[in-house]
């Protein structure tokens, strides 16, 4: 698929940065908007913008700030008019950098910050960008057999398998698990509301696998090398998933390999 307008929230590093790299270099004609909390400090993202000034726009957006989200949505509406793809990528494991292993480590601060970043922020992104998504032109995802457009845009929330209540057999990681489980509920609820009417939006949660990023780095020694993905590999798998999405997939939770995960 070529063309289209995509916004990647959380684009300064990790998966978000790699989504931007992939889209501007591999999807000819696609306009990409990369957002992050401190653009001036996002060296790799700014270098990418300098190399692809016609393809990449960088905007300031702290996902924990409702005002930032609202202002960014206004800017995108003025400059682009619509969106075909929105990827909520930023995530926090815990303010300490490590997930809680027991109740002794649970704190109000940890829970609040994780929920603000992993759940509330993405839901507010959906709130303020939904009008632009409903005006999308269906440039991402699968087309129907008769080539008619069934959806206008796609909203992707990067979730995690540890957010699956059914799959939780180890416990721990209270803040991260709870925030991702809540994000999955937000995805499901959004799929109902944004699946009505003419401007339909496919809403999915995607699990990227265990990726070699700052978030997972404290746990790399426990992950077999064949199961630790580079950001490049993970994004390639996730884009393959996105390319197959249609209205029959909305409101679901998928792993990097395309298998459906239980809530």
Q: What key attributes describe this structure?
A:
single chain; two-stranded parallel sheet; alpha/beta; 7-stranded parallel beta sheet; 263 residues
The geometry reads as globular
- From N to C, what is the helix and strand string? EHEHEHEHEHEEEHE
Oligomer: single chain
Low-confidence stretches: none
Instruction: State the helicity in percent bands.
Output: 25-40%
Distance between the termini: 30 Å
Strand content: 15-25%
Give a written overview of the molecule.
Helix content is 37%, strand content 16%. By secondary structure, it is of the alpha/beta class. α1 packs across α6 (231-243) and α3 packs parallel to α4. The radius of gyration is 17 Å and the shape is globular. The strands form two sheets. Strands 3-2-1-4-5-6-9 form a seven-stranded parallel β-sheet, with helices on both faces. Strands 7-8 form a two-stranded parallel ribbon. α2 links the parallel β2 (31-36) and β3 (56-60). The chain has helices at residues 14-26, 43-51, 66-79, 108-134, 174-193, 231-243; strands spanning 5-9, 31-36, 56-60, 85-88, 153-158, 201-207, 210-211, 228-229, 252-255. The longest helix has 27 residues, at 108-134.
What's the SSE blueprint?
Layout: E1 5-9, H1 14-26, E2 31-36, H2 43-51, E3 56-60, H3 66-79, E4 85-88, H4 108-134, E5 153-158, H5 174-193, E6 201-207, E7 210-211, E8 228-229, H6 231-243, E9 252-255
Parallel strand pairs: 1-2, 1-4, 2-3, 4-5, 5-6, 6-9, 7-8
Helix pairs in contact: 1-6, 3-4, 4-5
